[in-house]
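Supplementary Note 3. Input sequence used for the single-chain structure prediction.
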Amino acid sequence: MSLIKLDNMKKKIGYIIFVRFRSKRLPGKAMIEINNFPTLYYVIERAKKIRPRNKIIVATTNLKSDEKIIDFCKKNKILYFRGPNKDVYLRAALCCKKFKLNSFLRICADRIFFDFNLASKMVKIFKKNKFDIVTNSLVKSYPRGTSIEIISYKKLKETYKLLKDKNDKEHIFNYFYKNKKNFRIKNILSNYSNKITKINLSLDTKSDFIKIEKCLKSMIYSPIVETKKIISYYSKK
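The predicted structure, written as C-alpha cells, is reproduced below.
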C-alpha cells in the first residue's frame, strides 16, 4: 500500500488510540465494563481533555473479533480506522493517510489513566519545535501505563522501508529508540520518586483490572480525573 505525499499538506496532529479485542493475558479488556462503561470509554474521555482539541481516532484491526470495538465506535460516533493486526506501524501510517494527519499522539488503550495534562504539554513542545518524536519513554521516569509518544508522519513514512524486524512493525517506536542517534527525539523526564515510578497504572491482567475497577468506583462522581490524583490513590494502597 502506498503512503500519502506530504507536499503542501496542512499540518494536523491527531490523537490515535490503538486497541484490539484480543489479548493473551486479559481477553476483551477494552470492552470490559466498569460503572456500565467499557474501559475504552475512559481512554477516549481522557483523550478529549488533551489540548488543543484534535481528532480522536480509534485504530483497531481487520480481525472479526474487533467488530465489537467498531460497533462501540459507531454507536458513540467515534472516528475509527481498521488496519493490519500485527503490522501496527503500517496501521498507524495508513490511519494518518486516511485522516490527513501530519503527526499523531499515540495512546494505547491499556493506558486507562494516561496523563492528559502531560499529553497537552508534549503536543505544545512538538508543535513549537522540529522534533521527529516527543516521548516520555526513551528514558523511563513515569509510572507504567503513562507512556505517551508523538511522531511526525513524514518520519514514520520515510522509515517504513528500513524495518526488517517484525517486532519493529508491531511496536511503532522500537526502531526509532534503537537508532536514536539518527532522529531528533525529545524525551520528557518526571520528578517522581522511585516509589511512584514503580506504580503500575496499566491494564494488562485480571489483577490490574480489579485495582482499576476499585479506583474508578471510588471516583464514580468524577472518574476522568488528573493522573496525579490516580497516583495518589495507588500510592496509598
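Strands lie at 13-18, 33-34, 37-38, 56-61, 79-83, 103-108, 133-135, 149-152, 185-187. The chain has one domain: 13-235.
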